[in-house]
Amino acid sequence: MFIHIPRGRSLTLTALLFGFIFKLSAETPKKAGVMPERVITATKTETESWRTASSVTVIDRKKIDEQQLKMLPDALRQVPGLVIADRGTPGSTNGIFLRGANSDQTLVVIDGRPVPANLAGLYNIETMALDNVERIEVLRGPAASLYGGKTLGGVINIITRSGRGLKKPETTLSWEGGSYGFSRESLGTRGSAGIYDWSLELSRTDTQGYRVNSQMQLNNSAAKFGAQLADTLRFDLDLRYYNADVGDPFASTGFGANDPDNHVLTEFWSLSPRLVWETTDRWTQSLTYQFGNFRQAATGYNFGGGNNRITSRSHFWEYQSVFKATDQWTITAGSWLQDLGYSRYNNDAPGIFNPGGNSYDVDQAETNWAVFLQSQAEILPGWNVLGGIRHDSYSDFGNATTWRAGTSWRMPWTQTVLHANYGTAFAPASPQNREAALFGNPAFNNPERSTGFEFGIEQPFANNQATVSLTYFRNDIRNLIVFDPALFLLQQINQARTRGLEAAFNWQPCDSFGFNAQYTYLDADDITAGTRLVRRPRHTLSGEVWVKPVPKFRLGLGALYIIDREDGFGPAQADVEDYLRLRLTASYEVCKNLEIFGRVENLLGERYSEVLGFPSMRTGAYAGFRLRF
Q: Are the CB atoms for 182 and 462 separated by under 8 Å?
């Protein structure tokens, strides 16, 4: 293990930030009595977070704006128990490791609607802009009893903005530029008129990157239109589109390193109407449909099958019924149907190692239907009990029945929250792991399965100006798909275990100062092979301290410290360097219609790789403005 501790370079900045604390401690304290945080993802119904018995992290619009978070991976790095593995170049595929689970074992949804994945079972989160996002909810732990497959790690739910209820339209125009030829423009508007409301965001991002062939051009658009058709009937239509033109220099050393020609073009669009009917005061029904289409074209690669065209499409239907049997008991039931199709056209010439050249070497379809039932009850004041069960049937895999049980209790005399949760989950093999043309194994019909539990405590103090929390978790995974370097093929024989502690501290004593810190300890091991799972750091620390010397000026310093991790393949798996990444942000509200802002990424100039052989971005400075009218 290599531990690097920078010295001296941030002393002056740290002194300036913390020098304000003594002054701020004399200011008027922040008002107590904050409304309890409400979440949707843990139960599929809006519920106070402490009642869900689950670990849920919320990144709201205020934090997105104040910390100048532009893309989804930027926000997810702040979540306890979640690690992002970035290949270092803009637009490159990011890995998501939630509580040690693989990237294809965590589900990503937008407003509860599944996002189509690529053939590897991964989501292109690196292209998801946050302009039209109201908040992000990350549910940690097995979640198959509500969401079905790919939920061993949990669920990431991206909740979009709406113009509903606004008294007058809001329009925002922003621009930002900086290092490595970076430029970003965005335009957004939302509002309501009569029974109608809307929200629309458009953005364009260009950068040259810092490596050869690491340029990216990204266009994003997202829209939501709503209509209150009657007092009890509402219609929503969600539309989104992006296309990304990305250079791929591959690794910095070894085979194919620093290739000047590799090129990937991706495109995604979706259309999703939803109808919500408040049938009675106690009964609400909803019907959702979504069509999503993902396309990718790879060119310039110098190995057989590397140049190809991939298509993935999804039809998704969901019916949900929420019935409040009493004021303390809610029953949620529903069903869904998902029809998936994916194909790959191999543009390279046929050969010994590329027998499917100049043809569709992958062309498959599969169907999944499911039913689920959940009960939420407050059986005594402050004591909540939850339970759920779901059955999934697949056309191409073994079926799965999963369940969850949880409880939470808030002590009335101290407001201490105790929670515990136990659940099962599964993840069908990705197309890449099943398709022979992609060196997969068609015999992988049984999904990867897990059982997991957690228990934790959360304590507010200082008149609700601060909170501290601690959660222990463990997941046991079987049927894990791994690559056997001795046989040079995939096998589904291994067992894995992930376990650890998540701790968080938040403190905002007044409106001019705040501090938060998160720490995760993680053991993630392949029990069968007797090795650690790669790219899962043993220790992860993150946080931010911010001050407002004057009401309209905000200065923040964020940190991410990764300690003790391994990467590499087979016998080459070994310790890799630790790193400390600092992020400085500043913003000033010139007037109610104009804000200027700036940030410095990788403030200390750390040289490191989140994925071995793919160096991460160096220090970059960026600045811009935002107009509101």
A: no
Residue matched to tokens 């298509």: 311
Answer yes or no: are the C-beta atoms of 424 and 403 closer than 8 Å: yes
What CA–CA distance (Å, rounded) separates 496 from 302?
Answer: 35
> Which structure tokens are listed for 515?
């501090």
Type of residue found at 87 = R
Helix (H, G, I), strand (E, B) or coil at 350: coil
Angle at 77 between CA 72 and CA 83, to 5 degrees: 110
**Alpha carbon of 156 to those of 58, 107, 159, 511: distances in Å?**
10, 6, 10, 30
Q: What angle do CA 213, 217, 218 make, to 5 degrees?
A: 135
Q: Are the beta carbons of 320 and 337 closer than 8 angstroms? A: no
CB atoms within 10 A of CB 110: 22
pTM for the whole structure: 0.94
- With 0-12 / 13-18 / 19 or more C-beta atoms within 10 angstroms meaning exposed / middle / buried, residue 7 is exposed
User: What are the structure tokens assigned to 600, written together?
Assistant: 């410095």
106-110/154-160 β-pairing: parallel
Complete DSSP assignment for 462-474: TTTTEEEEEEEEE
- Give dist(CA 610, CA 616) in Å, integer: 7
| Nearest C-alpha neighbor of 83 from the set 506, 550, 485, 541 | 541
Closest CA to 222 of 174, 184, 187: 187
Averaged pLDDT, groups of 10, the chain, 629 residues long: 42 44 49 68 95 96 95 94 93 93 94 88 89 96 95 96 94 97 97 97 96 95 97 97 95 88 94 97 97 94 87 96 97 96 91 84 93 97 97 91 97 96 95 86 90 97 93 96 80 91 96 97 94 96 97 97 93 93 98 97 95 94 97
Give the whole-angstrom CA distance, residue 109 versus residue 338: 14
CB 393 within 8 A of CB 371: no
Measured CA to CA, the distance from residue 84 to residue 242 in angstroms comes to 22
CA distances from 367 to 336, 394, 430, 468, 577 (A): 11, 6, 14, 44, 43
Provide the token pair at 483.
């690559």
**Helix residue ranges per DSSP H, 213-332:** none
Cβ neighbours of residue 29 closer than 8 Å, sequence gap 6 or more: 463, 465, 509, 510
3-state secondary structure of 92: coil
Query: Which amino acid, 245?
Result: D
The length of the chain in residues reads: 629
CB 89 within 8 A of CB 248: yes
Residue with tokens 């070894």: 254
Q: CB of 88 within 8 A of CB of 612?
A: no
Nearest to 100 by CA among 520, 484, 428: 520
